[in-house]
Each structure stands twice: as structure tokens, then as C-alpha cells.
Amino acid sequence: MCVCPGPRRIGIPVRSSSLPLFSDAMPAPTQLFFPLIRNCELSRIYGTACYCHHKHLCCSPPYIPQSHLRYTPHPAYATFYRPKDSWWQYTQGRRYASTPQKFYLTPPQVNSILKANEYSFKVPEFDGKNVSSVLGFDSNQLPANAPIEDRRSAATCLQTRGMLLGVFDGHAGCACSQAVSERLFYYIAVSLLPHETLLEIENAVESGRALLPILQWHKHPNDYFSKEASKLYFNSLRTYWQELIDLNTGESTDIDVKEALINAFKRLDNDISLEAQVGDPNSFLNYLVLRVAFSGATACVAHVDGVDLHVANTGDSRAMLGVQEEDGSWSAVTLSNDHNAQNEREVERLKLEHPKNEAKSVVKQDRLLGLLMPFRAFGDVKFKWSIDLQKRVIESGPDQLNDNEYTKFIPPNYYTPPYLTAEPEVTYHRLRPQDKFLVLATDGLWETMHRQDVVRIVGEHLTGMHHQQPIAVGGYKVTLGQMHGLLTERRAKMSSVFEDQNAATHLIRHAVGNNEFGAVDHERLSKMLSLPEELARMYRDDITIIVVQFNSHVVGACQNQE
Amino acid sequence: MFHRLLSVVRRQRNSRGWQKWSSVRSGAFVAEAHSVALPAEAHVVICGGGIMGTSVAYHLSKMGWKDIVLLEQGRLAAGSTRFCAGILSTARHLTIEQKMADYSNKLYHQLEQETGIQTGYIRTGSIFLAQTQDRLISLKRVNSRLNVIGIPSEIISPKKVAELHPLLNVHDLVGAMHVPEDAVVSSADVALALASAASQNGVQIYDRTSILHVMVRKGQVTGVETDKGQIQCQYFVNCAGQWAYELGLSNEEPVSIPLHACEHFYLLTRPLETPLQSNAPTIVDADGRIYIRNWQGGILSGGFEKNPKPIFTEGKNQLEIQNLQEDWDHFEPLLSSLLRRMPELEALEIVKLVNCPETFTPDMRCIMGESPSVQGYFVLAGMNSAGLSFGGGAGKYLAEWMVHGYPSENIWELDLKRFGALQSSRTFLRHRVMEVMPLLYDLKVPRWDFQTGRQLRTSPLYDRLDAQGARWMEKHGFERPKYFVPPDKDLLALEQSKTFYKPDWFEIVESEVKCCKEAVCVIDMSSFTKFEITSTGDQALEVLQYLFSNDLDVPVGHIVHTGMLNQGGGYENDCSIARLSKRSFFMISPTDQQVHCWAWLKKYMPEDSNLILEDVTWKYTALNLIGPRAVDVLSELSYAPMTPDHFPSLFCKEMSVGYANGIRVMSMTHTGEPGFMLYIPIEYALHVYNEVMGVGQKYGIRNAGYYALRSLRIEKFFAFWGQDLNTLTTPLECGRESRVKLDKGMDFIGRDALLQQKQNGVYKRLTMFILDDHDTDLDLWPWWGEPIYRNGQYVGKTTSSAYGYTLERHVCLGFVHNFSEDTGEEQVVTADFINRGEYEIDIAGHRFQAKAKLYPVPSLFTHKRRKDDVELSDLQGK
User: Fold this and answer.
1) A426 or A533: which leads in pLDDT
2) Each residue of A378-406: pLDDT tens digit?
3) Bridge-based pairing state of the strands B839-843 and B809-817
4) pLDDT digits (tens, 9 = 90+) for A237-291
5) Which of A36, A221, B330, B455 is the least buried, fewest Cβ under 10 Å from its Cβ?
6) Closest approach of A141 to chain B, Cα-based (Å)
7) At what angle do helices B685-696 and B630-638 cross, to 10 degrees?
């Protein structure tokens, strides 16, 4: 749990560091960088090459959690590894061999970092016929925090139709985003289930029979679920569906997706809050539920079922639809509203929800109570509970909680809680054949790239070259040589696309490596990826992306049927 | 400027330049003749007015059949035929394909004279370039085979190539093959000429008539339902090209015709400054994946790219048809290749890039023949983009097949019945054709296995064997182990393992063979086709006695090697039949016989509810225990004496093995080695395998694969159906007189032909050749199809070959003919004729001396006698 100024989400000044980096000349005195060397992992230096600026800056790629095995500074360390690195001469050329100035990650090393978390899922085809409106999705994440605070989830609803995809941006730790990524889809799926199915599941639990599976997860091996809390989470979920069963009046069988999404979000946040208040006899779990409640997470979730696309958003992640115009060009349609200070309606809402005399303090320096960037979030009970409740829970809580400066800290001007809600804003969109894909991403992406660029880059990647304006000769004088030149040019342009099978990886490559001309600059990419953990967060946020690809044939067919 | 022009311009269909080339005269004589209603009845209805349909109509009418109706959904010659590149090339890898192309060439050559319709036939010749030595070897092999069937061709130097075609860059070539009599022709005009000739012979042609489905009653074609009414008919021919698959499926009882279309691109240019001569040879640069021919003074060039675009997977899709656009980016690698081959073309102006879907099949061979499930339903389709080359010959063979009941050549390799239902999945076809299309120009090396559409049918032991290092090949969708790679050994990657020389698995198979000879090996042979025939009375015996040449009225428990012959005495199937009881028989046939044998049996079995034929292939796992120690393993597992006294050769007994009961144990191995076949109900397979491996340990047991089996059986002169034997070879021609009982007291199919042959003598004889001056390490390995020379005269081709680890020599099997030196007529082949010759085998142009044998080498048996173990080998059927 670390917080610092700058692009961070919560601006509580606990410790601060700001080091200049990224000027080729690097004027900073070398002493300044010495502390960094300590963070280098010996094995890292051997294995993957590191970004080295001058002779004295050597840092480990930030995606590896810190190892206990630290590298101790040694005057001769530079010569220690140089002769062994055969890639060195290869990338730098002979003329630099005698005076090593810079170490960059080689393209394969860059790729291995970028691809470490990539995941692709293709909806299986059945005998050549794909009945789902979703072709599949690509997802990936690039950490800036250590450990990463973003989470992602994807699952197919088994008892109802449709697919759920979501990105979750955690702050003040990853506990909340982790919990939401594990639990939210179950709450949504349960909210969508018809009464009979709920009854069937409840009866099965009651009589000890096998349960109907609700979700088919599509997870990257790094996307873990916590085993310890599973039982606790299940009980909360069961209470929820029991209430749903009891509430059912039997009159309407139609389940409104929008309502279901809103209910699921609110219910989960409520459960998170309750679990923290009640506590757990198991000390590990007790600490866990408290960490979940005291950290926070935004969520942006899409539910796709045939041509019906719902996006439920809480916080400042964003869902963007990629639309291909008739002329083949790409345009972006935003399907969610950011809940932050840039959204006037949100500011307005907050001001209305609290007494007039708080109008100035409730949003300060573009932050909620001057602290929190997103205006809606899961967890963050500091912005939800009364001061009494907070104090009571912390005092009765475990020591670790008491020792933590952040949890004990009560936001200033905290008069009329709650200030924060997890209620999502739900957008509905009816898919059309020209809607080719949906990008769900945390603000780490949207901060660095314009939405139009995001959609263009993904669109061109997904469609390969075919829709990059097909060439036709028809009646014009074109020679074979001219055509050949043109095609080679086009291929060179596209070759970078083919480096990435995964659209999300491709997008991250652009987000991190784009130069001012919008092209991927390998040197820049290499530098960004070799930043040490402490610095990475200064230059970028965690980035998590899911690119969902739609099946235009199925979407078109669905449209025609109706 | 240039870029912008290109991108904004949309292609216009039927630009004028295009029409000039492909004369759209279709229907001129069609429409006026037959604008009336369809006839109510016909003998034959042919679907498809492309080159295949018109060729079948042409040949059927020539052979005297009347009442033939040809239906075309659009206009004549308007599908793939119209867009075909028009190259007629005889340089094919299969002899049957060479013969079809050769016949087509001769037919098209005289077609203009016959019909008066211009076909644009020009004898340009073609040149096949080799950029690598391996490619040159491949060309040399084709060259040897072309020469022996009378098609002139020669291997030439790069310098000669440059002389033949001035535009070619020859710096990177190692050689080439020149086939001077190849031609170019307008395929649409050929189809129209064939249609015109057929129409003059009485064939009625209707265009713009779609067939909705074929009507079938009791497994027999009764008519077709079209959008313009019904036609009753006895025969139906599906020549629907890329729609043949869909048409087959539209039946109530679907006919599976496994083929799939891919987009195919070629380029047309304006004439060169000095227009290319109309007789400039066609160039095939397979290493560059392109072909180039002259076209109106310019060039036409296309190719078979590595990343094909399959199309129409979900059936006919109007959207896709309309979207068939020129895809220049897709064509880029081929264009680069073209400009590398002919750098001077840079300044040549483009007319257009044509996109014409071509049809491909799962094994790169075309599909012809009668449906196994519907009598009278014939198919000719799936030409793998060689429709023009095959059109004439394929049409002729199919017409012969329909008229006479069988074609004049062995066409098993192209027979629809080689496929089963398993190849009819759209997903399978889509994936497989993506592998097949690039393969057209890939190097064709021995022992190539398809990589896509695998692991479909497997034995229950698959995982066990795979974990022990099995490498797999596929037959009829069934995975079979080739050999087992020991844990400490690494083989080359797939691409690198392509070779015409000694393969990297040589030592592995050697040790497996050695183990078969000295100890005991297990081979999983579950893929074999297994049928059971039972009846309440004597019907089973009666029908089998009629269908098979050997005497099956043997005591219960005996196994008979026998052939299922056709009227000509040729092998329709070669199998082993065990008499399980008085009234039931167990029949074991080659793997790929599953569909063909079933269809043949069904065709000849009387309608009798008391006679039951069942396909039990999937019910049994077959383990082959080969080797002198097999007997020890089995007796230890069954507590039963297995010595020849108790268990003679060619005997079948149900017994227990380990805990499992009801295992059919047969004393035969399909190799001539001692041992047993175990037919195990699949639920016991793993148990029996584990027991066998466990007990066998002390006898030195190990796994072996089909490569070892192949070496063993060829060394012992065991011919296999489908490789050595086919529908045109009789038992007498391969020294199997002992398997024919002409006097078994009743008639059987093929008896008359065999009697006659016995009287007159045979015209060819299966012979075993042992290569003499062949260096296994350094010389090219024989494969199959190599020409055999006797005293310098061509006498036949090899059918299979393997390295014999005991003989330490290569062994080839092949047929020896006796062509008259004066007339070329086939004469009687006697044992004396065989024995008195000096033989040579031509491997890619290099002739190796060979010793001919009519019987297996006895030294192999004496070698075995030194062992004091059982001597089952002596008792094995010859």
C-alpha cells in the first residue's frame, strides 16, 4: 500500500520522491541513482538485460515483485556482466563495444515483458458456425505498481446467455480490486438468474447435491482467486440469492439487465462493507476483509448477449466501442462516463448530495474531499463509514491495521458520509454490424492515449491489412514495379502489427512506446519498461485492457431476424 | 498521387479486357436448342456445366449412352472453369494423374478439329524450375515416370532454361525439367467445345437450372428435383465443383464429398513492349510458389501461397461471392517472387488481379467414383486446381466406370470411397485445405504426414504410447504409431526432416526390427477395419464363399488369407477371415477399406434379415505381438500352452489374457514373423497392454511402430492392398495361387477370369527386388513408383519399398511386365522370364542394380532356425 503524489489516485503525502529521468543527456549526478542499484536483482542482471543509463544506473524490470536477494553495489559490477552478453554487440553494433553508454532491452526482451500477462480467448466454433455475437477477446495488463493493483475478469454466463468482461482499477492496495474481480460476476450472474434456477441452486445447496455451474471463467494463469476467502464469499453470495428468492413476487419473469447490474454492484459493495464490520474469527480472513474494505477499486463491466450490450461503470475506467465506417475508417463511441472531477454531472451530483456548506470541500483539487480521484468506487469505507464506525473497527481490528497510517487517517471535512458509492452508471447499446469491437481499459491507458487513436490502432490490428483501404487497379495505369513498391511499403507498415497476436498487447505497446508522431519508438519503449519499481509509477499507471471482438455476421443475422 | 488513385478506385467486374479473353459465348447453342421444359425422364443427369460435367457428358455420349441430360445452375463454363488459368500440365506426381493429363492433352489438341470451336490450344511446353537440389530430385523422379509412360520430358541446365525463356532470371537455379508437349488452352472454350460435341451426340443441355436435391429410394438414385421440375433418372453425376459438398449434403441420405474452396489469385498484365511469343513456355517455379504463362503477349501469373484463404465454409454465401475482390496485399509475396524470377516485368502494366476460388480435397487428390451409400450416384470433383489438366482423362475414366462398371485404370487413389464420414466435417475440411493448398508447391517427400485434422480416431492406448515417445502417422483418420523415439534421442524438426535420403529415424526403426526378430515387440494395430458376419443358417458361409476366392468352409477356429475379387479377378480387398463359429466370421481388412469393403459387401449381400454384417472396428483394440518370444509372453499371461502343437499357425481362439476374458488371439502377425494378433474389447485394452508390457519385460519387450512392420513385411515379400495390390491385380499375378481355390465346389466372383488367366498365363508378376549397389547412407532412397528396367527395357514400376534390416539391403516390390519390343503389347510373364533378366531400378534418374526374387529370401528363415524357440514363421501362409 503506497501512496504518493503525481498521477496517483489518492494524494496523501506519506513519502515522496521525484527523480528526473528521461533525458538522453541525463544531467543528474550519479549519486542520486545509487540507491536504485540496491533494488537490482542479481539474477535479473544476468538473465534479462536491463536498462542502464550511463554506467551507474541499472534497474530491474518493474513487473517482478522484489526479491529478497538484492544486489549489493560493487565497483566492478559493470564489467561483471558485459562480456557475457552476446546481445550487446548485436544490438549496439561494433563501434560502441569499447565504450558502453546505454543498455536497452532488446526487442525480444521487450516482447517478453509485454506478453507476460497476455491472454486470448476465442469462443469455440461449432462445426464452422459460431452462434455467439462475441468472437473472442484479447486482454493484457502492464504493471506500474508492485504488485499491480489492476485486475481483470472475463466469464461466460452458463445458466443465462451472454458474456461478462470487466476491468478493475484498485487503489490503496490491490485487496479490493482482487475481491471485486473474483466476486462481482457471481453477483451479476445471480441477479440475472430466473427464479426457478435460483430455487434449484438453493435446493441443491440445501440437500448437498452438486451445484449448477454459473460462470465459465476465462483466466490468465496469473489471475488468481483467493482460496481462503472462498467460503466466506460463498456465504455472502448465498444470502444474496436467498433474499432474491424471498423477494420474488412471481409476477414478472423478465429480468432487466440494467437493474441486475446496478443491484449486483451495490450488493457486493454492501457485502464488502458488512464483512469488514462483522469481522471473521480467522485472523487471516479478518485482516483480509478489512484490507478489502479499506482499499478501493473502480469497475467497468460489459455484459454482451446477442446484440444487447450493457456497460456498467463505477469510477474512471472506460468502455469504448470501435465502429468501422463504410469507408473503412474507424471511429470511437464512448459507452461509459468517467466518474471524476472532469465530469460536471458527477461534481454536480456530489454537491447536491451534501449540504451546501460542503460545496467547496467535497471536491477539492479535482479530488473527492481533496483526496480521491474517482468519485465512485467499491470499498474505500473511509469515504463511506461514519467516523465512529471507522474508529471502532480499527481499534478492534488487528495490529497491522492499527499501525497503518493510511487507515487511521480520517479525511478532512468529513461531515456527512457517505461520500462515495459503488452504484454504477449503466449504458445500453444495441450492437450493429459496423460495431467491430469494444475496448475496456483502466485509466492507465486513457491517460496516455486519445480514444480515437486507441480505436484506430485496435481496428487496424484486428482487421489486419484487409481493411487498410484495399488496393484496386481497375482501369488505371499501374506497373508491376510500382505495385510491388507500394505493397512492400504497406507490409513494412503492418509488420509491427504482426509482432503482437494480441490486440491488447499491441495497444500497450503503443501506449507505452508511442513517440510524438504516434509511432512506436523502440528506444522509448525499452526505457519505459526498464524503469525500476519506484520510478515506474511516476511515468505511467497500471494498464489493463480487454479488447472484445464482435462477430459481425452473427450481429447482422440477429438484426435481420428481428 | 498514384497511391490515392489506387485506393479510391473500385474494381469493375467484366471490364472489357477481360471479356476479350474469355469469350462469353456460352448458351449460344444451348439456349436456342433447349429453352423448352425439362424432360420428365433421362438415363443420366449430370450436374455442372464446367469442364468436368461437359467432359463426362462428352465421353458418355461417345460411348453410346443415350438420354443424357446436363444441368447447369448458371451458364455453361462460367464457374472455376471460366476463371481457370488455362495451363495444361502433365507433370504430376501420381501416375494415374499423369495419364489423365496426357489423355486430356491429346483430347484438347484435336478438339478444335472435331468440333470446329476454337479452343486456343497452343503447345507451349512447360519448364519446372528447381532452386534447390531437393527440388531437382523431386523433378527427376517425375521425369523418370513421365518418360516411361511416353510423355517426353528432360532435365535441363539453367543455361538451357535461359535459352528457352529469355525473360527468366536463372542465377539461383540448380536445374529444371522441360516438358515440351504441355500446352495452354482456354478452358472455357474447351468446356464449350465438349458440350457442343456432346450435344451433337444427343446430350440435352439446360443452363440456369439448379438441382435442389437428388431423389433416392432404397439406396438407389431415382431422379433429381430441380427448380424447374423433376427428372427421373437411374444415374446422377455430381460435377458441381466447389458446390459438390453442399449438393451431396442436400440429399436425404447425405453423400459425403469432402472438398473445400480456397481463394486463388492470379495476375494479368498488358503485353510487353515486344509481346511475348504465343508459344513461350509456361514456367512453374514451385520454390517461389508461382506459375507464369504468356497471355496475349503479356503474362498471367498466379501461385499457391503459404497462407491460403478458405472460403464458403458455411456453404454458398452470396455476400462472400460478391466480396471476391482482388487482395493485393495477400498477393504481395507472390508478386515479389514473380519480379525476382522476371525482373524485366517491373515496367509492365497491370490489367487486373483475378480472384477465382479453387477446390481442394483433404489429400490433394481429386475425387471420383460412385457413392458408397447411394447406387448410381457418381461424383467427379475436387480438382485441387488442376481441373483443366485432368478434365479429359477424369471424364473418360468416370464414363468407363459408369458404362462398364469399372474404369480401365486403377483409380483407387482417387476413389470417393477412400474417405469416410469422418472427413465430412466443415471444420476439418477448412483446416485441412489450408494445409493442402500450400502443399501443392511444397516439396513432396516420402513419408509425409498431414499435420491438420489429426487425433480424430485414436486407440485407447494413444496416451500411453504417446507418453512413451510414439510418433504418429494417420490413415483414414486413425492415428498409428510410426516408431518410438527413445527418451535419450532427439529427432529433427518437421521441416528439417524432409529428405529423399536416409531419414533420421533409421537407427530407431532398426532397433525395433531387431527386437521383433530376436525378442518381442508390441504394435498397436487398432486401425484395421474389422467386420463380423453372422447368420442364423448357412447364409454367411454361402455369401462369403461367393465373394472370396479362398475356401472358407474350414473348421471353426481357422484363419484364411483370402481376396475379395472383382469380375476381372482383381483384388477389391485383401483380408484375413477367421471362422469364429459355424455361422459367424470375423474379417480383418486394411484400414482404408472401411468404406469400400462395406459398400462392396452390401452390394453383393442378399437382402436377408437373418444375415447380419456389422462393422466392429471401434469395438476392438488390436495388439500385434511380433517375435519369437511372443509365445512366452502369452502363455505366461494365459496359463495356456501356446506352442505350435496347441496353437498352430493361422488359428484363432478366444482366451483370457491377464484378468481379461474373451480376447481373440490369432496366430498371425501380417509380417511373416512369428507372433500373435490380440483383438481386445476396448475396455480391456489398457489392462491387457499393461499386462503384456509387464510380463514381457523379462523377454525384452518393447513398443514398435508401423515403420518396423513395413520393413518386416516387405523383407518377407508380404504385399499390402492399396500399396502393392489393387483392383487390377489378381492373386495369380502376385504368386498367391495358394490363396485361391478354383475348385472349392462353387462359383465365386472372379473365378472365370482366374481360370482363364491360369490357362493363358499372367501378363504381369509381382516381384521382389533387392538393391545391390545401393549405398543406404549416401544414395537416394527408393520410395514407390520408380521405373524398373529389365535388360535395359522398361518393364514396370515399384509399388512399395523399405530397408530390410536383416538383408541389410533395400527391398522394393513391383510388377514386371513383358512388353513386346515390336508392338509394345503386353505378353505373358513367366517365372523364367523374371529369373533370366538383369534388373535396374531408376531412382530419380539414377539406375541401381537389383536382384529379382519371386519368393522371399530363404536365408531369412535359416537365420531364424538357429534360434531354439518356436518356429511359427515356417507355418505362416506364404
Assistant:
1) A426
2) 999 999 999 999 988 888 878 777 777 77
3) unpaired
4) 999 999 999 887 665 667 899 999 999 999 999 999 999 999 888 888 999 999 9
5) A221
6) 31
7) 120
Nearest to B6 among A128, A486, A488 (CB): A486
Q: Terminus-to-terminus CA distance in chain B, angstroms?
A: 79
CA distance A376 to A358: 18
Angle at A225 between CA A169 and CA A262, to 5 degrees: 50
**Residue A5 pLDDT exceeds 60:** no
Phi, psi dihedrals of residue B360, rounded to the nearest 5°: -130, 155
Which of B11, B12, B347 is nearest residue A479 as measured by Cβ atoms?
B347
The grid cell for A521 is 519508438
Pairing of strands B282-285, B290-295: antiparallel
B260: contact with A, CB 8 A cutoff: no
Q: Identify the bridge partners of residue A322 per DSSP, sorted by sequence position.
A: A332, A437
Cβ-count burial A194-222 (b if 16+ within 10 Å, e if not): ebebbebbbeeeeeeeeeeebbeebbbee
Which of A465, A473, A479 is facing B348, going by the closest CB pair? Answer: A479
Q: Chain B residues with CB inside 8 Å of A488's CB?
A: 332, 336
Chain B nearest-CA distance from A470, in A, is 6
What digits encode the pLDDT tens for the residues A189-203? 999 999 889 999 999
pLDDT tens digits for A506-529? Answer: 899 889 888 776 677 788 888 888
Cα–Cα dist A451/A320, whole Å? 8
- How far is Cα B757 from Cα B763, in angstroms, rounded to an integer? 9
Asked whether this complex has an ipTM greater than 0.90, the answer is: no
pLDDT (0 to 100) of residue A255: 82
Q: Which residues have CB under 8 Å from B376's CB, separation 6+?
A: B220, B221, B234, B235, B236, B370
Closest-CA residue of chain B to A130: B314
Question: Residue B382: phi, psi to the nearest 5?
Answer: 70, 60
Burial class of B218 by CB neighbour count within 10 A (0 to 12, 13 to 18, 19+) = exposed
Euclidean distance between CA atoms A149 and A227, whole angstroms: 19
Specify the pairing of strand B44-47 against strand B68-71: parallel
> In terms of Cα–Cα distance, which of B445, B450, B451 is closest to B503?
B445
- CA terminus-to-terminus distance, chain A: 52
Give φ, ψ of B804 to 5 degrees: -95, 110
Task: Note whether B334 contacts A: Cβ–Cβ < 8 A.
Answer: no
Q: Which amino acid is at B72?
A: E
Record the cell numbers describing residue A149, joined without a space.
Answer: 493493483
The span from the CA of A379 to the CA of A381, in Å, is 5
C-alpha cell of residue B167? 525473360
Count of alpha carbons within 13 angstroms of residue B784, beta-carbon side: 16
SS3 per residue for B331-384: HHHHHHHHHHHCHHHHHCEEEEEEECCEEECCCCCCEEEECCCCECEEEEECCC
Q: How many CB pairs under 8 A join A and B?
A: 102
Q: Write the CA distances from B214 to A39, A48, B65, B208, B366, integer angstroms.
A: 77, 66, 21, 17, 22
The CA distance from B426 to B401, in Å, is 29
In angstroms, what CA-CA distances link B421 with B249, B256, B373, B457, B859?
12, 7, 11, 12, 45
Q: Is the peptide bond before B158 cis (omega within 30 degrees of 0)?
A: no
- Comparing C-alpha atoms, which of B207, B189, B338, B324 is closest to residue B269? B338
**pLDDT, chain B, mean:** 89
Query: Is the pTM for the entire model greater than 0.95?
Result: no
Measure the CA–CA gap between A68 and A308, rounded to whole angstroms: 50
